[in-house]
Amino acid sequence: xxxLPEEIQLHNIVETAPYLGKGPETFLxxxxxxxVHLNDNAKQRAFHSSGCELRFRLKSPSCKISIKTCDxxxxxxxxxxxxxxxxxxxxxxFPVILGENEFEFTAPQHDNLSKVSEQPLFDPALVRILLxxxxxxxxxxxxxxxxxxxxxxxxxxxxxHYGSSITHGSGSLTSRETWAGISATNQNADLINLxxxxxxxxxxxxxxYLCGRNDFDYAVIETGINMxxxxxxxxxxxxxxxxxxxxxxxxxxxxxxxxxxxxHNDVQNNDQGRAQEIRDxxxxxxxxxxxxxxxxxxxxxxxxxxxxxxxxxxxxxxxGMIQIGNFISAEIKKRL
Length: 336
Hints:
There is one protein chain. This protein has helices spanning 32-35, 40-45, 110-116, 165-168, 179-186, 204-212, 232-249, 264-268, 274-289, 305-308, 318-335, and strands spanning 9-11, 15-18, 25-28, 53-58, 62-70, 80-86, 89-96, 99-106, 126-130, 136-143, 146-147, 157-163, 189-195, 218-222, 255-258, 294-297. It has 336 residues and is α/β, with parallel strands linked by helices. The chain folds into two domains: 9-147, Galactose-binding domain-like (Jelly Rolls), CATH 2.60.120; 157-335, 3-Layer(aba) Sandwich (Rossmann fold). Helix 7 links the parallel strand 14 and strand 15.
């Protein structure tokens, strides 16, 4: 069911595996030998397709696609919206629910798109199927005539993002409208989204995996809200280990560590709670490195709580995602 035409390029998908060792093969954003060592939320969310894309050139006038999703935690979010883009241009949306989903689309006039966009980030001839933020994809079938992406169809720069549900995309409408997606677009970069809703614990196994990747130009690490649920000693140890090891492994790459975004803990504790302790700890750890490529960004300044938060006072609204994405990208530009 996941056997696609060889011309279809998978983005932000590293392999497939069955959940809990049984059931259908499902797309994964992390290798299985890393996933199994993480916390329960991360084990589930690694199957979620935030930032995952199918990329190809369409040779036929239209394309039909069937997507099957399976229930691996988080489908209470509704799976989400998939989005069809031709290069940078949105072509349409369709909801993805639990079970079978099918849709069809026709190609626009590529020449007209090229006239509008002289320096595109993605070439208008490249079809991009953006999969939803919270769906677990265990079946895809495609009907049409396809060609593989060509050199120059995608950006040369790549941005690696790791973080909590806010990086994952809880509160965004599509994968492209996550704050990480907005920030990467502003930086003319292709996004690798490794946000894990409820599961960003910075475990040693995850740190080692991130240290071993070398397919990006800069990284943004959200040391976020999930750390509040851990024992403070464990949280600090994991964060410190990640900062030390990751900056050593990628000494030649800019790395941006983002402190906890505004959350309920700030309101409950008058800005003096555990969230602020973590921000201060991360800032001090980064400063102690004295590394010109390691930077701290205060996530608390990233959005206006009045318009940027949802009613849980933690997850951003769609407007908040835009605010965060623009804020982080502006902070990156200052430092680069």
